[in-house]
Amino acid sequence: MTLQKGLGYHRLSPQEQQAYTIILNAFSATATIFDSSHINSKVDIMKVLQVALNDNPSVIYFDKTKIHTLQSFFGKQIELSGVPPKSQIKKMAAALDAKANSIVATIQKSGGDAYTQILRVYEYLQEHTKYDQKELSIISKGRTGRPTAHNAYGALIEDLAVCSGFSGAFALLIQKLGFESMTVTGRSTHRSVGFAEHAWNIIKVNNRCYHMDLTWDTNQYAELGMHSYDYFALDDEEIANDHDWDINTTPACSYNDLSYYLKSGLYANTKDRLDDILENCSKNRDKPIRVKLSLNIMLPQDAGEYIAQLLFTKTEKAGGSVSLNYWWNEHNRCFTAKFIP
What we know:
Elements: H1 14-28, E1 33-35, H2 45-55, E2 67-72, E3 75-80, H3 86-109, H4 114-128, E4 130-131, H5 133-139, H6 152-156, E5 160-161, H7 163-176, E6 180-190, E7 194-205, E8 208-212, H8 214-224, E9 232-234, H9 236-239, E10 243-244, H10 260-263, E11 267-268, H11 271-282, E12 289-293, H12 303-318, E13 323-329, E14 334-340
Parallel strand pairs: 4-5, 11-12
Antiparallel strand pairs: 1-3, 2-3, 6-7, 6-10, 7-8, 8-9, 12-14, 13-14
Helix pairs in contact: 1-2, 3-7, 4-7, 4-8, 11-12
């Protein structure tokens, strides 16, 4: 288990950083209880512990949903629950490391620049990990049925996870590719679950930081059966349309140059450009239709239906009628669709 002082660590105060170091030492020792009485009383220990976990996705040996503060004659302690025997911890860690290394080796072997490698990780997890709806139902009642659903082990070994598991797996693979990454905890909304507690990622590439919400894109992959990139490499302003978090705990994300839509020429900042993209899509019915619209383009209330109708019209002109499955993300103005044979 390789631990690091990552992106979250550098957003902490000196006193919080001292607490962070104590927590990392406890993780390294796979501790079940550790002394926190020497941590400054003004430090929010649970916040710092969460930051340490967010920076270190390889820490999987305890139940992240059950962390307790204990007060006794001997001082204040933190209890980490659900810790299995040492032999099982070692076996789980080895399995996770081997699986992650295998995935990363395959991605590296295929070559490509930083953008391409990150995109392949994003697509791999959409294809191989499912969202654990049963665990979501259980945790909404204040319990957990599968603690591993909340970490990288659940996502990569068991292929089933909730948002914290998805973000942990993404962070682990990205870090093994040589990029800095952290998990962000906050709240977000999605049509399938509504507004709820949520976790996603921030990654650092060439000294620029970007938001990545693999979970919401994986949910769309499950519905439409094709990769989704609506939440790939967003800046703070854009992701804030449907995500909420303590921005003081994360590095500034001020760029969107790695956006899939920009990199793929699928960003429309004028109505004419939207027409051109849809025109090209209408001529190739074997490929998914994707386009992202600038705020400069005025849309009717039922924007998804409007764009779908534009596509229908252009396709009919190209020859023949078609059926279409589509999804309109009103929060970041992404239209995704596919033709039905």
